[in-house]
Design brief:
Distance between the termini: 38 Å
CATH topology of the largest domain: Rossmann fold
Number of domains: 2
CATH architecture of the largest domain: 3-Layer(aba) Sandwich
Order of helices and strands: EEHEHEHEHHHEEHHEHEHH
Number of strands: 9
Helix content: 25-40%
Length: 261
């Protein structure tokens, strides 16, 4: 290991549960649910590289992200862990399951499939990269400056959670250049023809989302023959934030199934 460990937030006792956020997110996005899981689990919510308070690095693909997770649980002396990943974090969790299945307990993937997507994030990355942070007076000011290029209020609010102020002034916690340079790896997924993970897996999708389509299910079942599928009807891609109670109930039922009290 030639880089620092991922930053993480830890709470609770019980079986280890790693929570892995999606693109442009951080462990901060999961704090409310993490507190609820902590009643039954040793919850470790991570900041992936180039996000949150974790280190910045030029390389960013799924084998690398999975290796970061392995380095962390090794450092924490965790033999096996549940992995809960949303979107990009779900792909990182699936790659971990492929590379080190013996270190996985149960896998929970939120609204993503092991496929390449054609989404372009230029409309978010470029405006954020070109925001002149030396002229920012407040997060509200930054919000107004980004609004013409990013008119969706919810998306701007989500991105601005990663704009922080300290003694150095305003700075992004997101490594925008690294995200831009690796976006094809992030939206893609390595083709792996011969992997079959016999661990329990649950895929949860939002009813309003198009990320986890019915047509992807045969591929998921081929890779994860013990996979189950749940749909939260009145939710989109950020299903854990839009319907937290439903997401918590479904995920907890899966993670605790056949567990002794």
């Amino acid at each position: 290991m030639n880089h620092p460990l991922l930053h993480f937030e830890r709470q609770g006792e019980g079986p280890a549960l790693l929570i892995i956020h999606g693109l442009f997110g951080s462990a901060r996005n999961w704090r409310s649910l993490a507190r609820r899981y902590a009643a039954r689990f040793d919850v470790i919510a991570v900041d992936l590289r180039n996000h949150g308070e974790s280190f910045h690095a030029r390389q960013m693909d799924y084998p690398t992200l999975a290796r970061d997770l392995l380095d962390l649980i090794d450092a924490l002396s965790i033999e096996r862990a549940h992995l809960l990943g949303h979107s990009m974090g779900g792909k990182a969790a699936m790659m971990f399951a492929h590379l080190w299945p013996e270190r996985l307990d149960r896998l929970l993937v939120a609204d993503i499939a092991p496929v390449a997507y054609d989404h372009s994030y230029d409309g978010l990355i470029e405006p954020a990269m070109h925001l002149d942070l030396t002229r920012i007076t407040s997060r509200r000011d930054a919000d107004q400056r980004l609004k013409p290029a990013i008119p969706d209020d919810a998306v701007r609010l989500f991105l601005l959670q990663s704009l922080v102020h300290d003694e150095r002034g305003w700075r992004w916690q997101i490594n925008w250049p690294a995200i831009r340079d690796n976006i094809r790896h992030i939206t893609g997924f390595p083709p792996i023809d011969d992997w079959c993970i016999e661990r329990p897996a649950l895929f949860v999708r939002g009813g309003f989302s198009s990320y986890l389509k019915d047509e992807y299910w045969p591929l998921i079942e081929a890779h994860f023959p013990r996979a189950q599928l749940e749909t939260i009807v009145r939710a989109g891609h950020w299903l854990h934030a839009e319907q937290p109670d439903a997401f918590f109930r479904i995920s907890s039922d899966f993670l605790l199934k056949n567990r002794p009290e």
